[in-house]
């Protein structure tokens, strides 16, 4: 289970919080799903951690639409730094 703590912007406003769970990793992917609140708006959110290679992964944030489909609104890509 992942617990997201309230984050504050530089203005001191609360950005968001939520509780998400995932049963287990599926291959190279972990989908944390749960209800979250951002800037006063509550939504069902999926926070996916996806291994894309031995040296990189992505974090994809999606919201569930009324028809049950998911719409990605945010993606971050991370790569391992080369050895010095």
Side by side, the strands of the main sheet go 1-2-3-4-5-6
Largest sheet: 6 strands, antiparallel
- CA-CA gap between termini: 36 Å
Q: How large, in whole angstroms, is the Cα Rg?
A: 15 Å
Mean pLDDT, to the nearest integer, reads 86
Report the total helices. Answer: 0
Q: What's the total number of strands? A: 6
**Proportion of β residues?**
over 45%
Low-confidence stretches: 1-9
Helical content band: under 10%
Shape: globular
Structural class: mainly beta
Q: List SSEs in N-to-C order.
A: EEEEEE
Describe the structure.
With 84 residues, the protein is mainly β. The chain is built from no helices and 6 strands. A 6-stranded antiparallel sheet has the order 1-2-3-4-5-6, with no helix packed on it. β3 (29-38) and β4 form a beta hairpin. The model is unreliable at 1-9 (pLDDT under 50).
Topology:
Blueprint (H helix, E strand, L loop, with lengths): L1 E7 L5 E7 L8 E10 L2 E13 L2 E9 L5 E10 L5
Antiparallel strand pairs: 1-2, 2-3, 3-4, 4-5, 5-6
